[in-house]
Design a protein that fits this description.
Erv, single chain, about 30% strand, Erv_C, Endoplasmic reticulum vesicle transporter N-terminal domain-containing protein, about 25% helix, transmembrane helix, about 375 residues, 6 helices, seven-stranded mixed beta sheet, alpha+beta, 2 domains
Length: about 375
């Protein structure tokens, strides 16, 4: 058997040239590819910048939630609440007293007792700077509430003023003022918190009380309830002697209702009333609004309030009867405010973001075709 051996003819083309000529990819026609242009590059860069900006602002918008307010009837009529007070009166502590009378006619001692501290009405530079900071800050919040409203509710802390600083150097004269501070627990009914001359003495039947100073200048007809104004009415005959000269100039460092919470502005913080009249009645008419705060950072049940004030000079000779002092007459709103913080669902965020990015891509492509017809 014969075997035939075939020999393959060797190519004379060098191996390097074979590799150079190797092309395993299919060829494309000139009409199948896009020709690059400077205009198209600029449009692409602008499109990517816009897309990055859109993503940033969309995420920021999603993270920045909204604040919503709902009004519902207040049905929690048997709740208790605190009134927090810090006030300095330009009279010695032994000559005044602070107490409450409300429509339940409970003994005023059941609400608690405020602390009294001898003080000087003229403040030191440090105390004046501290008080002015509270006044200016609170004034700004009241005037710019419409601009900073949502920002206040979204904060994680409340605006609670710091306590009054002490005198660095004690004055040489005796204390001529009284600082009254602390908290009282109130019934959720209309009432009257007041600072008046003399010490309060409860009546034998436990309903109402009388201030000892009243017996010095008049005979009380009765101890009035919360809806009487002024606090004490007098008989139609002249007083026993002329009314003593009382100066109820005062500074309100802080006054609030309920527990401290974010977003709540206390309108009376930093309020200052100074008079040279001997017997003046300061009246504050307060409407308290129950408020439930339900934000991402805070959940609280508290109260906010609005206030109107009035000043009246007591002069029995001219027919202006009444009792000098500082009176906070408060009542409750029938509606409760529920403050909630809301954010759109996550799927809506992705849908809006995707549609916006797709729109930018389509617009960029159309601009490229218009500016470069050969693409």
């Amino acid at each position: 058997m014969s075997v035939q051996i075939r020999s393959r003819k060797k190519s004379n083309i060098p191996a390097v040239e074979v590799v150079k000529q190797l092309d395993s990819f299919p060829k494309l026609d000139k009409d199948d590819f896009i020709q690059r242009s400077p205009v198209g590059g600029i449009v692409s860069i602008v499109a990517y910048v816009i897309i990055c900006s859109v993503i940033f602002f969309e995420i920021r918008y999603y993270w920045d939630s909204d604040v919503a307010f709902h009004f519902v009837p207040d049905t929690d009529m048997h709740a208790k609440l605190k009134v927090n007070v810090d006030i300095t009166v330009a009279m010695p502590c032994y000559s005044i007293d602070a107490d409450i009378i409300d429509s339940t006619d409970e003994n005023f001692r059941v609400f608690g007792v405020l602390e009294e501290e001898d003080a000087w009405f003229e403040m030191s530079e440090k105390q004046r700077a501290h008080f002015d900071d509270i006044r200016y800050f609170n004034t700004y919040l009241r005037e710019e509430m419409h601009a900073v409203n949502e920002l206040l509710w979204k904060q994680a802390h409340s605006f609670q003023p710091a306590s009054v600083p002490k005198h660095e150097i004690l004055p040489s004269q005796k204390p001529d003022a009284c600082r009254i501070f602390g908290s009282l627990e109130l019934n959720k009914v209309a009432g009257n918190f007041h600072v008046a001359a003399g010490k309060a003495i409860p009546l034998a039947n436990g309903e109402g009380h009388v201030h000892t100073e009243l017996f010095n200048f008049g005979i009380p007809r009765k101890i009035l309830s919360h809806d009487d104004d002024p606090l004490v009415a007098f008989l139609q005959f002249p007083p026993i002697r002329d009314m003593p000269r009382h100066n109820f100039s005062h500074r309100i460092h802080h006054m609030s209702f309920g527990d401290s919470s974010v977003g709540i502005i206390h309108p009376l913080d930093g309020d200052e009333k100074i008079t040279q009249e001997p017997s003046t009645s300061y009246q504050y008419f307060i409407e308290i609004v129950p408020t439930d705060v339900e934000t991402f950072l805070t959940k609280a049940k508290t109260y906010q309030y609005s206030v109107k004030d009035n000043l009246r000079i007591i002069d029995h000779n001219s027919g202006s009867h009444g009792m000098p002092g500082i009176f906070f007459k408060y009542d409750f709103s029938a509606l409760k405010v529920i403050v909630t913080q809301t954010r759109e669902p996550l799927f809506q965020f992705f849908i809006r973001l995707s549609s916006t990015i797709a729109g930018v891509f389509v617009t960029a492509g159309n601009l490229t075709r218009l500016t470069n017809p050969h693409t």
